[in-house]
Amino acid sequence: MPDRLNFMLVLGLNTAFTAMEAALVRDGEILADARETMARGQDKALPGFVDRLLLQAGVTLAQLDRIAVVTGPGSFTGIRIGVAYARGLSLVTGVPCIGVTSLEAAIPPGMAGTVMAALAAQKRPPDQTWWVQGISADEGIAETVELGLEALQSMLAGFHAPVFMQNPDALGEQAATLDLRPLVPSAVTAALKAPLFDAERHPPAPVYARDPDATLPEPRK
Q1: What is d(CA 12, CA 98) in angstroms, rounded to the nearest whole number?
Q2: Regarding beta strands 66-70 and 163-165, do their DSSP bridges make them parallel or antiparallel, or are they unpaired?
Q3: Using one digit for the tens of pLDDT, what is the confidence trace for 36-68?
Q4: Can you list the residues of the chain whose pLDDT is less than 70?
Q5: Strands (E), the chain
Q6: Do the beta carbons of residue 183 and residue 18 sit within 8 Å?
Q7: Contact 193, 105 (CB under 8 A)
Q8: How far apart are CA 216 and CA 154, in angstroms?
């Protein structure tokens, strides 16, 4: 890794699920990180949450070199809140903002070769689905897609590389043939990877990987 990237001070943000997470990383070292479960009200609480983290680490916004934000998939509302806040911070500070998908933020940095990440989307059988993305050299090599159990089992047939997966028991007997490992998206992992990512190829744009559950009202006739 180039020396300039080694000494970047990166703020990582993850609000894509049911908690607020923030982390400060420099030179691969975690200076501070915090997590608070909060299903609602993240939009109002997030600025103060980040301010307290900066204070704890003894740094200011003016010292940041990059902002990393988890862009999803995950909670529609949580993704919008995190991405909007990160974009705002980027505008105020002039610091580049890097988008990191939930799958990229769930695979440990430095994994050799290509691995598969599968994050539980719909968790209740029989309609279980997973958000799936191939990861190589720390970043996604294809768009994130949502797959049902049958499609995922077909994709994993004969797969020999590590599979980072939530709810692997759903695979049944196939699970015993795979190198299965747990995964959890985190602000820390996003911050650790952001110095390696090209800003143009990793914009801070939401990744939903599905249509919203809510439907828009029909236009009046």
Answers
A1: 9
A2: unpaired
A3: 998 788 999 999 999 999 999 999 999 999 999
A4: 1-6, 211-221
A5: 9-14, 19-26, 29-37, 66-70, 97-100, 114-120, 129-136, 139-140, 145-148, 163-165, 180-181
A6: no
A7: yes
A8: 34
pLDDT of residue 213: 58
Q: Given this model, what pLDDT does residue 2 score?
A: 47
Q: How many residues does the chain have?
A: 221
Which DSSP letter does residue 218 get? P
Locate 21 and state its tokens: 């997470």
With tokens 């903002």, the residue in question is 97
Position 126 scores a pLDDT of 77
Tokens of 197: 């990512």
- Kind and range of the H or E element at 53? helix 42-57
Q: In this structure, are residues 30 and 61 in contact, taking their beta carbons and an 8 Å threshold?
A: no
pLDDT at residue 187 in the model:
98
